[in-house]
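Exercise 7b. C-alpha cells:
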C-alpha cells in the first residue's frame, strides 16, 4: 500500500540516504539541546551548560557523518529528514515540552538518545546487507556514546549541590505558579459559593434551581478569579511565573471548588442532595487544609482551623439566610 503515504520505508533507503538521515537527525537534536539550554540558562545555568555540551557532542558526530558521506558519496547530501521515513522515531516539538519541569526536560533529553539507539539497533537487525548492518551498528554505538557523554557532562557541570539548588528553584516556581494560585482558587470557590448555594437550597428546596445558582456562581467566580490573578502580577519581579498559567490555575480550581457542592443538586430529592452536598463540603475543606499542609508547609492544626472554621461560618450564614 505504498500509494497511501508519501513517506519512504526504511527498507527502501540506500546507505547514502541513511547517512543523510543520520546527519539531519544529529543537526535537529543539536538545535533542540541548544533551545533547552537557552530556555534554562537564566534560572538553571548549570543544567544549561550540560545541554550546551550535549549540543556540541551532536555537532561533532554530525561532522563525522558528513566526512563519511563526503568520502563515500561526494559533497551533495540528499535532503531526507525523520518525517520523510515511515516508522522513524519522532521528536516531540520543543514548544510542547518547554512548559515541562526541569526534571522532565532532563528525562526528555535522555529519552532522545535512547530512542535513537533503539531505532538503529532494531534497523540493523532487519537488514541483510552487511555494510548497512555495520553502518547502523556504528550509529547505535554513537548514540550510546552520546548517553555516556551526557552523563559525563552532568558530572562535570552539575554537582549534587547545583542539582539540589536547581531542584529547589524548580519546586519553588511550581508552587508559586500552580499550587499557590490553584489553592487560593480552590479555597475561594469552595467557601465563597457555600452561602449562595445553601441559601438558595433552603429558601426554595428546589434542587434544579439550586444547581443552576451553584453553576452560575462557580463559573462566574472562576472567571473573576482567573482574570484577577492574571492581571494582578506579571511575574517579572515577583518570580511567580506566567500570569496566564496562574490565571488558569486559579480560575479552574475556583470553578471546581464551587461545582463540588453544586453537582449533588442534580439529585432530584432535596434532602438526599443536601446531605451529599454537605459531605462534599466536609471533604473539600479538609482537602484544602491538607494541601496547605503538604505544599505550603502550613501547620495542619492552623490550616484546619482557618479553612474549616471559615467554611463553617459561611455555610451557617447561607443556611440561616435561606431558612429565614
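Sequence design result:
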Amino acid at each position: 500500500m505504498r500509494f497511501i503515504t508519501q513517506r519512504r520505508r526504511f527498507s527502501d533507503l540506500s546507505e547514502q540516504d541513511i547517512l543523510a538521515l543520520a546527519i539531519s537527525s544529529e543537526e535537529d537534536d543539536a538545535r533542540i539541546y541548544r533551545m533547552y539550554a537557552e530556555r534554562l540558562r537564566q534560572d538553571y545555568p548549570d543544567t544549561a551548560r550540560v545541554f550546551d555540551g550535549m549540543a556540541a557532542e551532536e555537532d561533532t558526530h554530525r561532522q563525522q557523518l558528513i566526512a563519511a558521506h563526503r568520502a563515500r558519496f561526494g559533497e551533495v547530501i540528499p535532503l531526507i529528514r525523520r518525517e520523510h521515513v515511515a516508522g522513524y522515531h519522532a521528536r516531540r516539538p520543543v514548544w510542547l515540552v518547554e512548559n515541562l519541569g526541569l526534571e522532565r526536560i532532563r528525562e526528555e533529553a535522555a529519552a532522545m538518545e535512547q530512542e535513537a539507539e533503539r531505532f538503529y539497533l532494531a534497523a540493523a537487525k532487519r537488514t541483510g546487507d552487511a555494510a548497512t548492518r555495520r553502518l547502523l551498528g556504528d550509529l547505535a554505538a554513537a548514540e550510546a556514546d552520546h548517553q555516556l557523554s551526557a552523563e559525563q557532562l552532568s558530572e562535570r557541570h552539575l554537582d549534587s549541590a547545583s542539582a539540589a539548588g536547581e531542584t529547589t528553584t524548580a519546586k519553588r516556581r511550581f508552587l508559586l505558579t500552580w499550587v499557590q494560585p490553584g489553592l487560593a482558587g480552590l479555597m475561594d470557590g469552595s467557601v465563597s459559593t457555600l452561602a449562595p448555594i445553601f441559601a438558595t437550597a433552603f429558601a426554595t428546596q428546589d434542587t434544579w434551581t439550586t444547581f443552576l445558582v451553584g453553576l452560575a456562581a462557580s463559573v462566574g467566580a472562576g472567571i473573576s478569579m482567573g482574570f484577577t490573578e492574571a492581571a494582578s502580577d506579571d511575574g517579572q519581579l515577583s518570580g511567580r511565573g506566567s500570569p496566564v498559567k496562574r490565571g488558569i490555575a486559579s480560575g479552574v480550581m475556583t470553578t471546581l471548588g464551587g461545582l463540588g457542592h453544586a453537582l449533588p443538586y442534580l439529585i432530584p430529592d432535596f434532602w438526599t442532595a443536601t446531605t451529599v452536598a454537605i459531605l462534599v463540603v466536609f471533604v473539600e475543606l479538609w482537602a484544602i487544609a491538607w494541601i496547605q499542609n503538604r505544599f505550603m508547609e502550613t501547620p495542619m492544626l492552623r490550616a484546619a482551623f482557618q479553612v474549616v472554621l471559615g467554611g463553617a461560618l459561611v455555610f451557617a450564614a447561607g443556611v440561616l439566610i435561606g431558612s429565614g
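Instructor comment: The chain is about 75% helix and 0% strand. The first strand starts at residue 8 and ends at 9.
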